[in-house]
Amino acid sequence: MAQNCRLLGIRCSSNPTLHNAFSRNWTSTREFPSLEAYATTSPAPLTRTLKVTGATGFIGSHIVSQLLEKNIKIRAVVRFTSKVKTIFPDAGSRLEIVEVPSLLDDHTEALKGVSAVIHTAVPGFRGSTMGAYEGILNIINQAISLGIKKITVTGSYLNLFDTDLKQAYGDKVITEKDFGSIELADIKPQEQDGFFVYSAAKTVTDKRLLQIARENPDVDVTVRDPSFNGFRSSRSKLPLFLRYHSDRD
Fold first, then answer.
1. pTM to 2 decimal places
2. Could you give the angle at the alpha carbon of 242 between the alpha carbons of 237 and 246, nearest 5°?
3. Which helix (H) or strand (E) element contains residue 234?
4. Bond into 43 cis (ω within 30)
5. Where are the domains of the chain?
6. d(CA 76, CA 99)
7. Nearest to 120 by CA among 208, 45, 204, 60
8. Environment class of 102 (CB within 10 Å of its CB; exposed 0-12, middle 13-18, buried 19+)
9. How far is CA 139 from CA 111, 116, 121, 148, 209, in A?
10. What is the dihedral of CA 106, 112, 114, 117, to 10 degrees?
11. What residues contact residue 228 under an 8 Å CB cut-off, 6+ apart?
12. NAD(P)-binding domain: which residues (predicted)?
């Protein structure tokens, strides 16, 4: 099965990282269409619904905003409904909001009737693989069991490297075919710091998604691997990122 680096046609208006980053597309014959193609193909956009998780996050909120501009109906799955209504007060019937407290919960009702899933929700750096691994796979497996054929997941550029990130500062050319070498058994949340656990869990999730795509050749699975994203709380989180890389040239 070919692995092709390609773009989804989703550009974050104030953050071009989402457009320019690596992506992995695992599919037998088809490609995931751009937003423009999705919005203009028949039937009319409002007869289709996309499920978007993490709709109040930095990347997720930009995706929802652009889908609304394309007149595509969205089912936003969030932990708290009030925040979505504040961000998108004028969305009206184009935006359906479903509250699901955890990635590990049953998402069956939230998945029913949707044409595609865009999964951007992340659990944060809190010493557990449950959200970043089991949670993501929980949603993806439920989607496939319901016959959904288009799935997009926000990964991380960290998936491309070993956890020491030495390759990121070397001269090796990294492509979409590269993975970090860490495996699920190597992750020990009680012994490792949260950032390590989070990045390692994202890597093993990426590997597992490739296996799922191979097991389900009729399903298009795309993993977007953006690098460093700006966020609303940049000033509070940037020191964490810089501290982690403080020993790098």
1. 0.73
2. 155
3. helix 234-244
4. yes
5. 3-244
6. 8
7. 60
8. middle
9. 9, 12, 11, 11, 12
10. 20
11. 17, 157, 241
12. 54-156
Structure tokens at 4: 């092709």
Q: What CA–CA distance (Å, rounded) separates 135 from 102? A: 8
3: left (phi > 0), else alpha (psi -120 to 50), else beta?
A: beta
pLDDT along the chain (249 residues), means of 10: 30 35 42 40 56 87 89 89 85 89 86 92 63 86 93 84 76 79 85 81 88 91 76 53 49
Please give the CATH topology (third level) of the domain spanning 3-244: Rossmann fold (3.40.50)
Strands, sheet with 22-26, edge to edge from the N-terminal-most edge strand: 3-4, 22-26, 220-225, 150-154, 116-119, 49-53, 73-78, 95-99
Tokens of 52: 């978007």
- Separation of alpha carbons 105 and 95, rounded Å: 21
Q: Which two tokens stand for residue 82?
A: 């009030």
Q: Would you give the distance in Å from CA 13 to the centre of its chain?
A: 17
Give the Cα separation of 91 and 71 in Å (integer): 10
d(CA 210, CA 216): 10
